[in-house]
Write a structure and sequence with these properties.
mainly alpha; Serine Threonine Protein Phosphatase 5, Tetratricopeptide repeat; about 0% strand; binds adenosine-5'-diphosphate; binds magnesium ion; DhaK_L_YcgS; Dihydroxyacetone kinase subunit L
Length: about 210
């Protein structure tokens, strides 16, 4: 596929926002079981703010880093929940990973996904197996990097990431939460999917679908 432009990236964020709106109730339901039932709402507030901020961006002069930085800033300002600073750091890191690039090729986009995942891990200090969004983002990023190392095109890299993240989110059902709100539940968190991991897998799926060309 051709390189990802600033306009493509803005459209990707809009597609993520639309997916969040469609899954708002589902994400709140998941959070209702092991958290405070607001994950769909917090993500909706965040991506609505991102969409409005990106609509104001001059795509003729803004580079991909500016898109990620704008997303980071607006998400942070809009979201008070724990996902606010996590995704703000993630998008900042993604922007830093592609700094100076006018468009994103496969390598840059996979680097952005990897930086995003690492940003969440660094900001939240969760490791794999603690029943958080890290359990979807990290395997997702690793799968994208592995597909790239095999010489696969971007669409296949993102597809691999989405599949691994979906499996990762599924695997959180068997995990005991030790980070975030759900950690207060102890064993009662067992058997339920982490809402942040669920939304992370959906985000990667949107990215894969968006660039499947
Ligand atoms: P809040 O818990 O403040 O209501 P949300 O409901 O928006 O925030 O997000 C909850 C999600 O945030 C959890 O399902 C989990 O995936 C993620 N999360 C919470 N704490 C951490 C952390 N320290 N590191 C990574 N992810 C975390
Ligand atoms: Mg919540
Ligand atoms: Mg909350």
């Amino acid at each position: 596929m051709s390189d990802i432009t600033t306009t493509d990236l803005v459209a990707m964020f809009d597609a993520i926002g639309a997916m969040i709106e469609a899954n708002k109730g589902h994400l709140c339901e998941l959070d209702g079981v092991i958290g405070d039932a607001d994950h769909g709402v917090t993500m909706s507030i965040g991506f609505t703010a991102v969409g409005l901020a990106l609509a104001d961006l001059d795509t003729a002069t803004a580079d991909p880093t500016a898109v990620f930085n704008t997303a980071a800033k607006s998400f942070l300002n809009a979201v008070g929940a724990s996902s606010g600073p996590l995704y703000a750091t993630a998008f900042m890191r993604a922007g830093a990973a592609v700094k100076g690039k006018p468009v994103l090729d496969r390598d840059a986009m996979v680097d952005a996904v990897a930086a995003l995942a690492k940003g969440i891990q660094d900001r939240g200090k969760a490791t794999r197996g603690e029943k958080t969004m890290v359990d979807a983002w990290l395997p997702g990023a690793e799968a994208a990097e592995a597909a790239r190392a095999e010489g696969q095109p971007l669409a296949a890299c993102l597809d691999a990431a989405a599949k691994a993240a979906t499996e990762g989110a599924e695997s959180t059902k068997a995990m005991l939460a030790s980070k975030g709100r759900a950690s207060r539940l102890g064993e009662r968190s067992l058997g339920h999917m982490d809402p942040g991991a669920a939304s992370a897998a959906l985000m990667l799926k949107v990215m894969a679908d968006h660039f499947a060309r």
